[in-house]
Specification:
The chain is mostly helical. It has a single domain, classed as Cytochrome Bc1 Complex, Chain C (Up-down Bundle), CATH 1.20.810.10. The chain has nine helices and no strands. The protein is globular. It starts with a helix and ends in a 6-residue tail after the last helix. The mean pLDDT is about 90.
Length: about 220
């Protein structure tokens, strides 16, 4: 990877204009536990790439979604592998974010002046959970259908606005084709863009405020 980056640097001159980003002083006492955020970001990149590949064959239609998943699994060359990598990357993303959040909490890196960065990180975790929930419906089988029915029904328990919120999430009173299209839109467009913006803000504040070492 180092040689490849050096080759790119000769062609595009990456290092010179980005010295402030690529080279920073790090506090003493850092360990691999401080790489959990980077591992989560790597999982996000893998999700993004494999998601683009899966979108070439997936059909977000009430009549064709399940068959398109079977086509990916059985007929598309290495489709089963790409879908498996996408699934496990989603799991690892949430695990790494949770571990990263725990590490930040233990090291008290959420305190001033980094409280806003802590909030952004928590919003990123919420976005990851929402992305996993919306993606769970996309195979459009019995398991995902009834799990989504139960999950979205919980919104109806919220006082005053619960029924309206459930209608907004489902796109109707029941889980159907409108729900599938809505979840697909959130999963491949709204949530990835939201998470990308949150990650940019998160990394920008880390660059400005630095990394907190051990207590």
């Amino acid at each position: 990877m180092g040689r490849a980056f050096d080759w790119l640097d000769k062609k595009f001159r990456i290092k010179a204009p980005h010295k402030g980003f690529l080279r920073r002083r790090l506090p003493p006492g850092l360990s691999y536990f401080y790489c959990l955020g980077g591992a989560a970001f790597t999982s996000y990149l893998i999700l993004f790439i494999t998601g683009l590949m899966l979108s070439l064959y997936y059909i977000p239609s009430e009549m064709e979604a399940y068959e398109s998943v079977l086509t990916i699994q059985r007929e598309v060359h290495l489709g089963w592998l790409i879908r498996s990598v996408h699934k496990w990357s989603a799991t690892l993303l949430i695990v790494f974010i949770l571990c990263h959040t725990l590490r930040v909490f233990i090291s008290r890196a959420y305190k001033s002046p980094k409280e806003l960065n802590w909030i952004v990180g928590c919003l990123t975790l919420v976005s990851a959970f929402a992305s996993g929930f919306t993606g769970y419906l996309l195979p459009w089988d019995q398991k995902s259908y009834w799990a989504t029915t139960v999950g979205t029904s919980m919104a109806a328990t919220i006082p005053m606005m619960g029924r309206h919120l459930m209608y907004l999430i489902r796109g109707g009173m029941d889980v159907g084709g409108s729900t599938l299209i809505r979840f697909y839109s959130f999963h491949v467009l709204w949530l990835p863009v939201t998470m990308a913006a949150l990650l940019w803000a998160h990394f920008h504040m880390i660059k400005r405020l630095g990394i907190k070492g051990r207590l």
